[in-house]
């Protein structure tokens, strides 16, 4: 599978899980989807493809999604311009002998703003703080860079 397809699949599968949880449990109950389903979906796609599939963010909720130093300059480019013609910007590069694909995840009003926006309901904010005491992933406006999908080849030492 190509990197773009893997990012599409991660986004699609996560949105489906999230939409279902929002419909059934509302924003408070849906917080757990991003906490548990997102890493599972990414891990499954990684295992199927032989590539590393994940999400990263500078203002992350989960510290495991932090930006590695070698990716910081690419991420900064996405922060400067997350959208081009209304579509998320994507970047392909070779970094340290690895093929890297990174695509912006722009903030959207629905469903993202309920948990990541500028006006998060107190019940939702309390639930986020309970699960993510070091949360840094709120205060986004529509169109801001919320994070990025990352697909890259596995380091040789990891693959051997």
What secondary-structure arrangement, pairings included, does this model have?
Layout: H1 3-49, E1 51-56, H2 72-80, E2 83-84, E3 87-88, E4 90-95, E5 98-106, H3 113-116, H4 122-131, E6 145-153, H5 156-159
Antiparallel strand pairs: 1-6, 2-3, 4-5, 5-6
Helix pairs in contact: 1-4
Q: Which stretches are poorly predicted, pLDDT < 50 over at least 5 residues?
A: none
Class per helix and strand makeup: alpha+beta
Mean pLDDT: 92
The helix tally amounts to 5
State the assembly state of the protein chains. Answer: single chain
The tally of domains stands at 1
Q: Can you tell me the overall shape?
A: globular
Q: How many extended strands?
A: 6
| Proportion of strand residues | 15-25%
| Proportion of helical residues | 40-55%
Give a quick precis of the structure.
Helices cover 46% and strands 21% of the residues.
Notes on the structure:
This protein has 160 residues and is an alpha+beta fold. It has one domain (3-159). Helix content is 46%, strand content 21%. The protein contains 5 helices and 6 strands; from the N terminus they run αβαββββααβα. Strands 1-6-5-4 form a 4-stranded antiparallel sheet. Strands 2-3 form a two-stranded antiparallel sheet. The protein is globular and about 45 Å long. The two termini are 21 Å apart.
Features:
46% helix, 21% strand, globular, alpha+beta, 160 residues
């Amino acid at each position: 599978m190509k990197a773009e397809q893997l990012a599409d699949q991660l986004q699609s599968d996560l949105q489906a899980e999230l939409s279902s949880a929002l419909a059934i449990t509302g924003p408070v109950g849906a917080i757990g989807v991003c906490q548990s389903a997102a890493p599972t979906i990414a891990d499954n796609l990684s295992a199927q493809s032989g590539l590393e599939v994940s999400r990263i963010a500078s203002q992350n909720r989960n510290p495991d999604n932090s930006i590695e130093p070698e990716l910081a300059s690419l991420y900064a480019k996405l922060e400067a311009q997350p959208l081009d013609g209304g579509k998320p910007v994507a970047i392909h590069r070779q970094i340290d002998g690895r093929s890297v694909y990174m695509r912006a995840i722009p903030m959207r009003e629905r469903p993202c703003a309920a948990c990541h926006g500028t006006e998060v309901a107190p019940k939702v904010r309390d639930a986020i703080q309970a699960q993510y005491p070091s949360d840094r992933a709120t205060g986004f406006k529509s169109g801001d860079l919320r994070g990025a999908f990352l697909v890259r080849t596995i380091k040789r030492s990891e693959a051997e």
